[in-house]
Amino acid sequence: MRDDKSVPPTPRRPALFAAATLTVLCLSATGCGGGDTAQARPGPEAASPSSATASSPAPASPSPARGGPASPTGRKPAPSTSAPGAPSGPLSGKTVVIDPGHNPRNHLHTAEIARQVSIGTTHKECDTTGTSTNGGYAEAEFTLDVAHRMRTLLKAQGAKVVLSHDNDRPFGPCVDERARIGNKAGADAVVSVHADGSAAGNRGFHVILPASVRGGGADTSKIVGPSRDLGTRIAGLFVRATGSAPSNYIGGNTGLDTRKDLGGLNLSSVPKVFIECGNMRDPKDAALLTSASWRQKAAQGIADGISSYLNG
Q1: Is 81 helix (H, G, I), strand (E, B) or coil?
Q2: Can you tell me whether residue 123 is helix, strand or coil?
Q3: Residue 241 has pLDDT above 70, yes or no
Q4: Sign of CA dihedral 6, 10, 15, 21
Q5: Fewer CB near the last or first residue (10 Å), C or N of the chain?
C-alpha cells in the first residue's frame, strides 16, 4: 500500500519466535494481543470512486416436489419462496465486505485519483496507484487475486460477500467511497487487502487498526474495540496459515499497527481493518506474494480470522 520507501530496515526478531508467539496468543479466547502504535505514517490507502460489486445473488431454494402431500384444504402447498441453494453454514446471515486495495488501471487515471477527498479529519488523495514488486507484479493485481480467493472461502461458509470493486471500473473507488460501501452494506466485518512498498530488508505482514478519531465526518469510537478484536484474530491466524512472521519494521513484532490517517478506517461505521500481507519491495517477501499457493494460504488466514471474529 505504502509508496513511502523511507522507513529504514530494523533488526528482525527471529521469525519462528514471533510467529509462534502470535499464534499462541491468537488461539486464546481473546485472540492475539499487541499494543497500539499510534504514530501515523504517510502512505496511500485504497483507491478511487466506484460502486460496490456484490457477490452473485444466491439461487432460490427448491419448491416442494410434485405430487407431495396436500394441504388440509385439499390443495397442494404453495411453492416455496425461499431460494434454492440459499447459503448455509457457520457464517449464514453475516455480511463481509472485502476491499481489494487500489485498482489495476489507477495508473492510467492519475488526475482522477489525485483529486482530494475528505477523510473526516483532513483531506487526502482519492487513491494511489499502489506499489509493485521489482519484477512488475502490481499490488492491485495481488489484492484482487487474494480477494477472489477470500470470497470463495467465505461464501462456502454461508457469508454474503461484497467486493468494493472487482476490476470493473476504470479507476477507484476513492477511499471515502470504499468506507461508504462497507457502511451501506451493514457489514459485520470489512477487510481491506494490501501489500506494502517499503525498503528491502523490511519483511513480514501487519494489520492496521483504526485509531480513536473524532472530527469532521469521522467518528470511530464505536468500532475501535471490535476492529481490534477482528484485527488480532486475523493476525494470529495469518501466522498459522502462511508461516509468515509479523512485520520487523512496523508494530514492534506484534503484527498490529494503529493509524488515524486512513479515510477507509476513519469514515467506517462498521468494524474494519487493513492488512499489509508483506513487502513487495523485499525479494524474499516478493517471492511469497507472487506465489499462487502462498496467496491461497494468505486468503485462508484472513478468512479464518474473519470467521473466528464473526463466530465469537
Answers
A1: coil
A2: strand
A3: yes
A4: negative
A5: C
Mind giving me the DSSP string for 207-276? Answer: EEEE---EETTEE-TTTHHHHHHHHHHHHHHHHHHH-PPBPSSSSTTSSEEEES--HHHHT-SS-EEEEE
Confidence of residue 1 (pLDDT cuts 50, 70, 90): low
Report the alpha-carbon distance of residue 306 to residue 229 in Å, rounded. 10
Q: Give the per-residue pLDDT at 5.
A: 34
**Cα four-point dihedral sign 156, 53, 304, 128:** positive
* Identified catalytic residue from 45, 125, 177, 276: 276
- Which residue has cell 407431495? 68
130: left (phi over 0), alpha (psi -120 to 50) or beta: left
Whether the CB-CB separation of 109 and 170 falls below 8 Å is answered with: yes
The answer, yes or no, to whether residue 182 has pLDDT greater than 90, is yes
Task: Identify each DSSP E strand in 150-196 by its residue range.
Answer: 160-163, 189-196
Listed in sequence order, the residues at least 6 apart from 39 whose beta carbon sits closer than 8 Å to its beta carbon are none
Classify strands 95-100 and 160-163 as parallel, antiparallel or unpaired: parallel
Is residue 276 flagged as an active site residue? yes
CB atoms within 10 A of CB 148: 17
Whether 130 shows a pLDDT value over 60: the answer reads yes
- Beta-sheet pairing, 116-118 with 95-100: unpaired
